[in-house]
Design brief:
Elements (H helix, E strand, L loop, with lengths): L4 H5 L12 H112 L3 H5 L1 H10 L20
Length: 172
């Protein structure tokens, strides 16, 4: 049977013929009641504290659950961002490779065009040089007339607009 501090204070043990010393027994009972009252209060405080801790524990478990969910979400977002960055990098690389191939094709086409143009110009130059090297029909008929034309500066106009004779740079 559990006794409260108030019940202990109001108890009085039965007395016998020789009885007990009332003052010493009452002081002892008072001390027991005070000690028991302190323990009773401490027990009530501890019960309140246990109740508070249990509510804190529930709150912390909810917070832990929320943190776990947040952590999983952050990990998933991180993985998604990494995957997206990888895909973007692959896309950029494939675009760069395609652009490089297109640039290379354009360069090869331009090179072929320039090579063809160079061959054509070379052929024209060769033909022009060959035409200069061939004696003109008039010169073969009258070699003396051609010499007079050279001396006077008359005659056909050459590449540089000076006639067949190239002016002497030292004479100027």
């Amino acid at each position: 049977m559990a006794l409260t501090p108030v019940e202990i204070r109001h108890m009085s043990p039965p007395r016998s013929l020789f009885g007990y010393r009332a003052a010493a027994t009452d002081a002892l009972l008072e001390e027991i009641a005070a000690s028991f009252e302190d323990v009773w209060r401490e027990r009530a405080d501890l019960a309140d504290k246990v109740e508070q801790l249990e509510s804190d524990l529930v709150r912390f478990r909810e917070l832990e659950s929320l943190l776990r969910t947040t952590l999983v979400s952050a990990e998933q977002a991180s993985a998604q961002m990494k995957e997206q960055a990888r895909r973007e990098a692959e896309l950029i690389l494939s675009e760069a490779r395609a652009e490089a191939r297109a640039t290379q094709r354009r360069a090869l086409t331009e090179n072929e065009r320039l090579t063809s143009e160079s061959r054509r110009l070379r052929a024209q130059l060769t033909a022009a040089l060959a035409a200069l090297d061939e004696p003109e029909p008039e010169q073969t008929a009258d070699p003396a007339a051609g010499e007079d034309a050279e001396e006077t500066g008359e005659g056909s106009v050459g590449w540089y607009g000076f006639g067949d004779a190239v002016p002497d740079a030292d004479a100027a």
